Amino acid sequence: MTDAAPASAAPILQARNIVKHFGHVEALRGADFSACAGEVTALIGDNGAGKSTLVKILSGVYAANSGEILLNGAPVRFSSPSDAHAAGIETVYQDLSVAPDLSPAANMFMGRERLRPGWLGRLGFLDNAAMRRESLQAFQRLKVSLKDMDTPIADLSGGQRQSVAICRAIMWAKNVVFMDEPTAALGVVQTGRTLDLIRRIRDTGVAIVLISHNMRDVLQVADCIEVLRLGRRIARMRNEGVTVQDLVGAMTGALDSQEEGAAA
Amino acid sequence: MTQTTTAPLAADPAQLSPPGLGRRLRGAMHSSPAYMTGILILLLLFFTFMRPNTFASAFNMRNIFLDASTLLVLSIGMTYVMIAGGFDLSIGSVLVFAGVAAAKTMEAMGTDTIFTVLVGLVVALIGGVAWGLFNGWCISRLRVSALITTLGSMGAALGISYLLTDGNDVRTVPTTLIAIGTGSLMGIPWLVLISAVFTVVGMVWLHMTRYGRHTYLVGSNAEAARRAGINVNNHLLSLYMLSGFLAGVAAMLSLGRFSTTTLEGHGTDPLEAITAVVLGGTSLSGGRGTIIGTVIGVFIPAVLANGFIIMGVAPFWQMVVIGFVVIAAVYVDQLKRQSRERG
Ligand SMILES: Nc1ncnc2c1ncn2[C@@H]1O[C@H](COP(=O)(O)OP(=O)(O)OP(=O)(O)O)[C@@H](O)[C@H]1O
Ligand SMILES: [Mg+2]
Question: pLDDT by residue (tens digit) across A12-23?
Fold first, then answer.
């Protein structure tokens, strides 16, 4: 029913009726979600609405208590983050999920380290030069410049750490990139660049899911907006003629009676 | 605070190649192992200057290395565990247990050949790994803290050792093993050679392989490692098994050197190993550390104790000095962390 909004493409990733409890807390109470390839889908909602929880379920970090996930229309089960990675789904977590004591390259290849060719590789020896080179190429492609490639990323600024997390997700993603408040720690210039980056990646055909509390950013880049409230999706709309007031209204419940009302 | 981080231009070309030796050296100068190496060199110079004929003699140097060899092997395992953010207080008792198990087995065999020693070694290694498996299982599966788990197995392993021996040291160590424990190759004691091999292998494995990289990742941010698809629980399990394995190796070294199970002799081993690891710059919160630092951290107390004895200073001063030095080392580590967090 809430999928009634006109979509320009078939959704690449869909979630239906997701329920997730943490003890007595019902973080998600039958949430639906869908994201289309080559589009930016904004996922908005008040603090505690369940956005991060939904993202973690769709990234394989948490298992849902019930509900269904469809990738290209076929049901999938993510019992670990590796399953989601294998499905081409990458995530920039709200807490970044980086190892502060390790170098940018070590973070980019975390869990997917390149090994040396030949028998050294079979013994588990790392190809640090290749990982450093490929990381640097990824940073350059995305126009991110780090002052030092060989320092623990704890020594970088908060924004630079965020850039590393974003570049890592983009480097590996084939289908979907979730970004949980990727611009929260960024200044105005940085935020602008990140939004540009999001558009450029979208144009490569990847589905981007952007979580943000900044409605101006959302209206700038989103093709499609999904609103989550109290663990349920209560609206899905195309970003056509939508205003900040419409979004705030949907998030706080003022628009309850006209679920699809904001769609053009 | 949030500086502009993404520049419109491509990255600085200087970054394209890995840092040269000069830059790497300059970076290393500010690390804890570098300070500690400086302190070690100063100590060596000081004692050499004060007692050139006794302290700096080949015989005395050999003694320092010999004394440090068992602790070094234990400290390699402790370095891995602590880089992953863990702790292993049980290694001293596990060493004793492994030694008792090996000595009893060799006694029962009644032979005295290299084969006897090999069987003893296998028994010691199995004993050590079994305790490591127990520790790692409690820590990674039952989620009992590493401190409590290994404190518990520290008591349990020693208690079982006493039960197995009725509290009397086993002194029937085969002479083949004693020959290894007290012999040398081209003037270098076997024990020193063996511990050097374990140190080098431990260093290469930690710093150059995926296993080592995962050890750092687990210690730096276990949740991030899990989300990156690393099996954090299995990795922790294997680390405690590694620590137990090395305790088994150390047990054989100790048997060979002292020709007895030294039931009473290893109560402070874990604390000495932790001291060495911390002196070597391994962060208590995990994620950072080096084997070379641990080597330095083993030798500073060893040199200090030896130098004090030679100078006629009561060796107990070594304990006093090292105690305060450890506190200072951790304080400096915290200062560095705080300045990083502010920056
Ligand atoms: N690991 C957890 N254990 C217990 N409760 C949790 C856990 N994670 C989330 N919750 C609860 O689930 C609810 C949804 O949280 P979630 O983090 O998904 O919200 P959010 O929409 O991302 O909020 P924000 O905008 O503040 O990031 C909250 O009530 C939160 O307290
Ligand atoms: Mg959130």
Answer: 999 999 999 999
Ligand with smallest separation from the Cα of A228 = 1
Same domain (yes/no): A132, A6: no
Residue B132 to residue B242: CA distance in whole angstroms: 7
pLDDT tens by residue, B107-128: 999 999 999 999 999 999 999 9
B10 and A140 in contact (C-beta within 8 Å)? Answer: yes
Q: Residue B317 corresponds to which amino acid? A: W
Assess whether pLDDT exceeds 70 at residue B28: no
What residues of A are in contact with residue B7 (Cβ under 8 Å)?
143, 145
Domain-terminating residue out of A172, A191, A219: A172
Assign residue A53 the CATH number of its domain. 3.40.50.300
Spatial contact of A2 and A233, defined as CB atoms under 8 Å apart: yes
Mean pLDDT of A142-151: 84
Predicted pLDDT at B278: 93
Given pLDDT bands bounded at 50, 70 and 90, which one contains residue A8? low
Residues 6+ apart with CB under 8 A from B319: none
* Same-domain status, A64 and A190: yes
Interface test with A, best of B1, B2, B6, B334 (most A CBs within 10 A): B6
Query: Where are chain B's structural domains?
Result: 68-266+283-288
Say what the ipTM of the complex is. 0.87
Give the domain range for residue A109.
Answer: 100-172
d(CA B128, CA B245): 5
Residue from A110, A132, A195 to probe the interface with B (highest B Cβ count within 10 Å) = A110
Does the structure show a pLDDT above 50 at A195?
Answer: yes
Query: Mutation test of ligand 1: which of A20, A52, A212 has the most ligand atoms closer than 8 Å to its C-beta?
Result: A52
Query: How many contacts (CB atoms, under 8 Å) link A and B?
Result: 138
Residue A21 CA to ligand 1 center (angstroms) comes to 10
Q: Cβ < 6 Å from ligand 1: which residues?
A: A 22, 25, 27, 45, 47-53, 94
Region of B10 (left: φ > 0; alpha: ψ -120 to 50; beta: rest) is: beta
Q: Ligand 2 mean position to A47 CA, how many Å?
A: 7
Of the residues A152, A172, A192, which one is the last residue of a structural domain?
A172
The predicted structure's pLDDT at residue B298 = 96
